Amino acid sequence: MNQPTRIPVRLPHRVSALQRALLLTAAAAGMSIPLSLILHVVAPALDSMGQRFTAVLVMAALALAVAARTDRGLFTWKVRSPRLLILPAVLAVLPLFGGIKDLGMPVLTMILIGEIATGVFEELWFRGLTLRALQHWRPLPAAMLAGALFGLTHLANILYGADPAITTAQVVGAFCFGVGYAALRMRTGALWTLVILHALTDIALAVGDVPGGLRWGIMIGSDTVLLVLGVYLLRGTRSTTVRDMLADAGHAASARPAAAGLPTRR
């Protein structure tokens, strides 16, 4: 009796770098949406600031857990060419030159904790995990894509009551910021220093006592400088990859196998 012909089943090829980067971005957005819905139901009395504060703490904890599971190499303080971080540090503190607002200790404490958690989440997720997903790409396209994905995730701010027009401006600014910080990550190998600078940038914008117009000018000017800096730092890197640059900076991947659906390194 003839055996039925077996048709070989082709398993899908390994997820591509682009798909992994998009998956990470979708995961970031996917965390924001259910968290927003849950907080509206569980804690309806929380204002938008309280909701964002709670959500970012959860997301920072998840980012730390994923990073610890997929790449312990992300937990290092090594920095190559620290002088490259001087300009971003100066840009970060510009809003403080006008003094500090009298916000009261409870609000100030919430801002400090919330912005530090934001820095942890966004740097681990986008300059850590997303760049790792793109490790075989050329540096400049990888920085541009990672920056664009970082910018798009800021659309989730609308879920927490942010003005759509302001959010759109934040998306563009975050893209510029993301390109600059991705380049700094690749050139210096720094990640946790970038977490500090990122948090300091957001804290200074929140507590700096500067007029609204000047505040927007500082944000637009700083983001533009970071975009130009990023492109400048990655000039002449067409013959190398993100992985090579991170290895040169002393941060070659030391990843353990990732959980299903997550990149194998980041």
Report what the structure shows.
With 266 residues, the chain is mainly alpha-helical. The chain has one domain (17-248). It has 9 helices and no strands. The longest helix has 29 residues, at 105-133.
Order of helices and strands: HHHHHHHHH
Percentage of helical residues?
55-70%
Structural class: mainly alpha
Uncertain residue segments: 6-13, 252-266
Label this structure with key terms.
266 residues, mainly alpha, 64% helix, 0% strand, globular
Brief overview:
Helix content is 64%, strand content 0%. The protein is an all-alpha fold and 266 residues long. Helix 1 (17-42) runs antiparallel to helix 4 (105-133).
What's the arrangement of secondary structure elements?
Elements: H1 17-42, H2 48-70, H3 86-93, H4 105-133, H5 139-153, H6 164-188, H7 192-207, H8 212-233, H9 242-248
